[in-house]
Amino acid sequence: MPLLPHRLDGLRLRHLRLLELIDEHRSLRAVGAILNRTQPAVSQMVKDLEYAFGATLVQRSVRGVTLSPAGKLALQRARSGLASLDHLVAELGADQSPILRVGTNPALVFRMWPTAMRLLETGTDRVRMRLRTGIVGDMLQSLWDGELDCYVGRVDWDQMPPEMVRVLRHDPLIQTDLVLACSLSHPLAGRKDIAIRELADWQWVLPPADSNNRIALEAEFRNHGVLVPAPMMEISADLAGMMILARELELLTCIPRSVLDSHIAAGQLCALDVPALTFPPIQIGFMTLAEHEDMASVQILRRVLTAAAQEMNTPPAPSAAD
Prior knowledge:
This protein is of the alpha/beta class. About 40% of the residues lie in helices and about 20% in strands. It has helices spanning about 15-25, 30-35, 40-55, 70-95, 110-120, 135-145, 160-165, 195-200, 210-225, 240-250, 255-260, 295-315, and strands at about 60, 65, 100-105, 130-135, 150-155, 170-175, 180-185, 205, 235, 255, 270, 280-290. The strands form four sheets. Strands 4-3-5-12-6 form a five-stranded mixed sheet, sandwiched between helices. Strands 10-7-11 form a three-stranded antiparallel sheet. It is elongated and about 75 Å long. InterPro entries: HTH-type_LysR_regulators, LysR_HTH_N, LysR_subst-bd, WH-like_DNA-bd_sf, WH_DNA-bd_sf.
């Protein structure tokens, strides 16, 4: 059945919440009890939904009802829309200017965000933001679920489901890579041509095993036939803490080069010279869902971040001393 816009006019919010109840309870009788409706009335709501979307959303069997592949996609998109609506209701109730919900990776707090905020302060546009940090997978899922309006961070297209890729709007910002680092007083600091096998003999502080940076590090060790180091300590989504521990306890760590180059790490850590290690580049981008890209605050933040990326990608001018 083709999707016709006028078919959507008869839908109400309870129709969209119906999909969530069906997915949770797998019984139209149970859903009817929750909605205080008869089973035939719930069945009619399902028919109304399927007519509006032009697709079979619910599959029936002797064991009950389940969502079809189209129904699961509709549920995901409905959750995103309902979450945005709940956010709007909260904003209107607070009687304040809207808050842009932004997700990002901890590595970008060191340089990208300070640069962007300085540019925003010097301009005429103003945006109220709630910044939330976390690992890539969690941030993208929150964007997909409607809990975030946009995401600024690492982009791994091969790990995204096709249905998410189709509705994402992406602007590339910067590119960085991973680097191994240690304190300036560590025995490996300043050494040239360090062999990968030597690294397994030292203590490490690393992100969790499911983080992209940890996965990339372990893949490189395995590619060279070297035992993956077991970290003395793991820290989740806290690069600042990881760098402090590396400095104070003389541990090895693995962080994005953009973080090591920031003023926070300057004079505290140094990069290890391990020529055999070659990490893939890390793409950093701005992402939002198609339905959010026309929001004024999203457009302002996109412009500011693009300008910040251009500034970060421009080599500094040589000083007079040079």
